[in-house]
Amino acid sequence: MESTTYALPATPKQIAYARALALRNQTLLPWEVQQDRRSLSAWIDEQAKMNLGAQESRPTSRQVAFAERLARIKRRAVPDECFRDKGLMSKWIDGNK
Description:
The chain is mainly α.
């Protein structure tokens, strides 16, 4: 018996999810990757991990609301970089209580 392996085509759901990840991460979805289920799955895993870290470092909605309330009271603006980093937002809040 010969052990020949055939590449299974990617499912429509896989391709749709991969396209959504490509848009979110602002990256290209290579044509070759879309032709094979396994390679597309590996690409999806890689792209999903890339954006996960970026979301974890962003401030929570409660932090943002509290910082904006403090900014109104103190009549100053919250710096833009604070909206991109949870630690910076925390430091800004602590410095403006």
